[in-house]
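INFO batch 0412 | record 1 of 1 | parsing
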Amino acid sequence: MIQNLNGLDLSRRAWLVRGLALAAGAPLAEESPAVHNWMLVGDQAAYLSHLPMFERLDAAGTEYLTPHRFQVILQASFGPLGSDASSVYFADRQKNPSVRMFSVSPSKPFVLPEVAAPFPLTTFRGTVFRGHLERGGQPIAGLQGVAVNIRRVVYFHKFDPAATAPAALEYLFFGSGTELFLVHSIIKPPDFDQIVSVKVSGSELSSGELGSAIRISIPLKKSSSATRLGEGEKASAELSDGRKLVVQAVREFYFEEGELMMPATFKDTPEERKSVFST
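INFO prediction complete | emitting tokens
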């Protein structure tokens, strides 16, 4: 259980189970602080992908009533300025190649949109886990209560109930050097979260372009969890500017579907039971 200074559990599961007065349809405050957990990927650079939820709608149907109603990707480093502890994480991932999930949990609640504010939040303290922190992950020695420094906001999106889900499968493409990732673009419930490393051919993208997430479409694939890119699979893709490329999925680091239903569920869905991520 993760608590704020008043002893209130602000974890994602607590928001779902307890409701925090949202059952009455009361709107959120301007933005509410919460413990925002993250998936962590990268062997050369550290990327954080926020674990989002939809949960429920307000009475007017214009807002999702959860502080986790954002898809956010950050490039980060660990440790105080002048003493980078990111190498501890990289070394631990290399020593544990069978572990797909690494995750990060903040030590204290914060307001997530502050990371993209005009005067942004640039650091918070947290613990890095080997494994999923909500599913038996283990804190990594040297990365407990460590400074998490936000080096770049790769992607920030607030979920809009009025949005239309795309017909074709869409991903957010980012990375650096030879380390490239796709994260499924989350739009509206029911939806799914997926992080996969990829190889790309057919079009060259600059490091500047990849510093921010690029939306790509897989036109021949329907937008559903059952048709997501599988390990080893190649697919033709298109960028928003019309450029074409071929992506090949290398390794799926994360897949989640139940938590992106509305209401969310922490029970395995049929698609999750078929994956390596079933609990």
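INFO post-check: Confidence is low (pLDDT under 50) at residues 1-10, 14-29.
INFO record closed
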